[in-house]
Amino acid sequence: MSNATMTKFGFPRTLVAETAHWTVLVRPQQVTLGSLVLVCKEPVTAFGAASPAAFADLQPVIAGVERMLKGFVDYERINYLMLMMVDPDVHFHVIPRHPGTRERDGVAYADAGWPGPPNLGSGVALDEAGQAALAQHLRQLWSSANA
């Protein structure tokens, strides 16, 4: 089952991990390498309307995201942005933050906003093949980091 926000961010192609209440997706526009979208699967458009079970399920998902991304990009900070201006389903943009750049497959990913707020208009736009490849790699890391 998916909602409009999951579909917009490429589900199921971009799927990294899934629980009963949340999906972790690769963000097609990589603000920094490892940028994700964490989407609530419940039909809610206000964070406070999420069920107690969704809130309980969120903690292990966030812990898993942080373990996975720490090993992948060695972030210094991590930002969770709940903007919900265009896409109304409850979701967070997860942006690993760091000085300098990270590289993958010969592409440099800079944190253009460091040390200030993330620059959401910058980054690397992945094509569908790039999204799928990154999602597959992160799925493997998720499994290892959360075994």
What is this entry, summarized?
This protein is of the alpha+beta class. The protein has 3 helices and 9 strands, in the order αββββαβββββα. It starts with a helix and ends with a helix.
Task: Walk me through this protein's architecture.
This protein is α+β, with helices and mostly antiparallel strands and 147 residues long. It has one domain: 2-Layer Sandwich (HIT family, subunit A), CATH 3.30.428. Helix content is 31%, strand content 26%. The protein is built from three helices and nine strands. The strands form three sheets. Strands 1-2-4-6-5 form a five-stranded antiparallel β-sheet. α2 crosses α3 (128-145). The protein is globular. It starts with a helix and ends with a helix.
